[in-house]
Amino acid sequence: MAGKEEVAFLGPIASYTHQAALTHFPSPHYTVVPQTTIADVFAAVQSGSVSQGVVPFENSSNGSVIFTLDLFADLAGRNPEILVCGEVYLGVHHCLLGHSAAPEGQDGTDRTTAEDVSGVSSPKKSRAKPLRDLKHITKLYSHHQAWGQCNDFLTTHLNGIERIDVSSTSKAAEIVRQDDSGCSAAISSRMAGELNGLEFLAENLEDNEGNSTRFLVLRRRDDRISRPDESAGEADGEAETDDEHARYKTLVSFTVRHNEPGDLAGCLAVFQKYGLNLTSINSRPSNEATWHYIFFVEIMGRKRHVGSGAVNQALKGLDGVAQSWRWLGSWENALKA
Amino acid sequence: MAGKEEVAFLGPIASYTHQAALTHFPSPHYTVVPQTTIADVFAAVQSGSVSQGVVPFENSSNGSVIFTLDLFADLAGRNPEILVCGEVYLGVHHCLLGHSAAPEGQDGTDRTTAEDVSGVSSPKKSRAKPLRDLKHITKLYSHHQAWGQCNDFLTTHLNGIERIDVSSTSKAAEIVRQDDSGCSAAISSRMAGELNGLEFLAENLEDNEGNSTRFLVLRRRDDRISRPDESAGEADGEAETDDEHARYKTLVSFTVRHNEPGDLAGCLAVFQKYGLNLTSINSRPSNEATWHYIFFVEIMGRKRHVGSGAVNQALKGLDGVAQSWRWLGSWENALKA
Description:
2 copies of one chain form a homodimer.
Chain A: E1 5-10, H1 16-24, E2 30-35, H2 38-47, E3 52-59, E4 63-64, H3 66-73, E5 82-91, E6 95-98, E7 139-142, H4 144-149, H5 151-157, E8 162-165, H6 169-178, E9 184-188, H7 190-195, E10 199-202, E11 212-220, H8 242-247, E12 248-255, H9 262-273, E13 278-285, E14 293-300, H10 310-318, E15 324-332
Parallel strand pairs in A: 1-2, 1-3, 7-8, 7-9
Antiparallel strand pairs in A: 3-4, 3-11, 5-11, 6-9, 6-10, 12-14, 12-15, 13-14
C-alpha cells in the first residue's frame, strides 16, 4: 500500500486504548489518531476517514464495555459497514502518579485507616506497597472503572480520600500535573506518568495481577487491506480443521421475536448444531420495545469468504429462527491458551 | 403472623427502589428500612436482620444492574442464603426539580442550543416540554443512569449545562433543596420532589415512554413466610401445565470449565432439553481466573418443592455439564404479556 494508514483510537494520548493501538499498529507504518468517544472511533471508521479503529471491549475484572456493545447493536443504523478484524489483549497496570512532597502546611491528616472501615467484611491486604509517603495526598483523580480495580490498595493506603471521576485515566494524570498544590494524585498508566513528568508514588495498584483489557480492531466491510493468512486454507471444498476453529473468533448479534422466549434457545441451538463453541454471551436492551433484548455471542471459528464452513452454515441457520442477525466480523484469536 | 415485618430496600428515602418496596410491601403491614448500598440490602437479608429486601435488577433502557449481578455471583461466599422470591416492575418517570426563579444577576446565559451540537447526528426532539423557564439553571444533579435516559430532553433544553453525578436521584433532590442560589436542578422522582418541597420544572423527561425498572425481592432460603399459591398444583406426580410455566420465573447462575468453551453451549442445551424457555442471559467476570465468566440465565417455570418438574430436572442435568451452578430462586412472573 502506498500511503501511511491512519488508525483511530479512543483517546486521549496515553490512554490504555492508545497503548493497545500502538501494539497492533506500530509506527512508522501507521499514524494513530485520538478520538474523544468510542462513538467517534466507530464514526471515523464508518465514514472512511481512517482505515481502522481500536476500541475497548471488555475488562477481565469489570466486564463488558456496554458503550461498545451498544455501538455494535447499532439501533440507529449509523454503523452498518463496521466489522471487527482483530483483537489486542493488554495487561492493565495502574500507577499512583503525583508529586512526592507537598508544600508545607498541606499535610493530609485525619486519614481514616483500613481498620476504621465498617463494611461487610475486612478488605484484602493490598499486594502493592507505596514507593513514597502518601500522607500529603488529599484528592484522587481517575476513570471510574479504575477505582474498582484498585480496591485493596485504596482501602489499605488511601482510605477516605476524596475521589474524583474524570473521563479517562490519562486525563487524570494531566489534571494532577496542572495542580500546583501537590496534594492530588492520579491512578493512571505508566505511559501517562512519563508523558506528564509525574512521580511514581506506587505501581501495580490493581487487586488482580491478571487485570487486562481486550480491545477490538474495527474496519470497514469493503476495505481493501490485505491481511496475511485471512483466506489461508479455505478454498472451496477444503474441510475445516480443529486448528482453524481454535485460531479464529467470530462475533454475531441477533434479536428474537418479542414474547417468543423459546426463540433464544433456538438461536443458541443453531451454533451447537454446527459444533461451534460459544465463548461468551451478552445482552443489551434493544430499545425496539420494553424488555426486548439484542444478544451478542462470540464463537470460535470464522466465516469463510468462500465455501461452506460451520460458521457460514450457522449464520444461514439463524435465518429461520432469529428475528434479525448480523455478522460482526471474524478475526484471529490473540489469546494464547 | 404476629410481628410487623421489616423489609430492607436500596435507599435513600424516595429512591425508585423505595417506591418499588412500598408497592410490594404496603404499610401498615410492613416497615421498609433504607440501606446505603445494594450490598447492604443483601447483607441485611442474609443476616436475618430483616425478613426481605428489594434491589434494582435491570432497567429497560440501561440494561442490567451489574452490582446486583455481582452480589448474586457471590464470589466471596457472603450471601449463600439469598433467594429471589418476587419481582416488581415500576415505570420510571423523571422530573426536573428545582426553583422557578433565580435571584437577580444569576441568569445562566451563554446557553448552547441543540443546534450547536456537533455530534454524529442531530438529537431527537424531546417529548417533554418545560413547565417553567429554565434559563437560570446552571447546574444539574442526578444519578449517572438518569442522564442517558433523558438524553433528548437534556440536549434540547439544557444542552451544555454542567452535570454532577451523585449517589442517587433522591440525593440529587436533597442537594438542590439545600442550594440557596436557586440555579441548580435535579433529575429525580415525583416522590423526591414532593418530599423536598421542590418545584416541578418539567415532567416525564425520559426519552422512552416505556422506561421502567425491574426490582427483585430477596428472602432467606430458610424463612418461614407463607406465600399464597407457592406450592399450588405441585403435588408429586401432578403434571406441569403451560400455565404453570408462564406464571413463574427462575434465576440460575453457573460457571463452566476454563478452556472448555463447548461447556457453555452444553449448559444452555440442558434447559432446551426440558423445554424451558430462556428469557435472558447475562455474564460477568467470575474473577476465578482471567477471562473466566459466571453466567446468569432466567427461565420461565419454577423449581418445585416436591416432585420432578422440568426446572428440577434441568438443574439436575446441569450437574453433569456445569463446573458449578446455583438456583437463585423461583417467583411469580409480574409482567403481564
